[in-house]
Design brief:
Layout lengths: L3 E5 L4 H12 L3 E8 L6 H12 L4 E6 L22 H4 L11 H15 L4 E3 L15 H14 L1 H5 L5 E3 L7 H10 L24 H13 L10
Parallel strand pairs: 1-2, 1-4, 2-3, 4-5
Helix pairs in contact: 1-7, 7-8
Length: 229
Amino acid sequence: MPLKAIVLLSGGLDSTTTLAIAQNEGFETLTLSFDYGQRHRVELDRARTIAEQMGAVEHRVVTVDLRQFGASALTDTIEVPTHRSAGEITSGIPITYVPARNTIFLSYALACAEVMECGDIFIGINAIDYSGYPDCRPEYIAAFEKVANLATRIGVEGARKLKIHTPLIQMTKAQIIKKGLDLGVNHSLTHSCYDPDENGIACGVCDSCLLRLKGFKEAGALDPLKYRA
């Protein structure tokens, strides 16, 4: 009987590739997405489609309204940065950082894992080609995993310790794209843009779009998405 894993699925390149990796490693996957008041809500539709087409045994959407706190261009009336250089993208924590987002998401995943008697959680964070988010670093994941095993029944009484898997954490965006291609990921289903239009078309100039386009170029592959710019 295959082991079960919770996979955090945003509908983006990284989380979709992470889902493919978990499945390739033999895990039966339950995908978890979050409706947190994000302006790029099209990602929720993409995540649902990806979960269905990639054969997740179950897909759940958790609602937690982070607009109550704001202070991020993804959840507040703050303009999304555009046309930034690679140096600008990687210098400092950008305004698209959502306070405590990964901690909140992983906490929900942890609760789900306990109920499902599942000892494995996959998250597609990356510490190389990313926008400087503090909750995408290896030391953060190590600390959260320690807390998870101290604070849960599965961590205290389980046959084995709970594991937070971060298969992409030391990969460049180009390497992630190539890995996805190797595993048969349909990149046309994914969404990366922070500021899509009402039809879900990507802007092509926000940090996330620029990192995605750079990754496809370096991977020598064609990005199948349409862009406004």
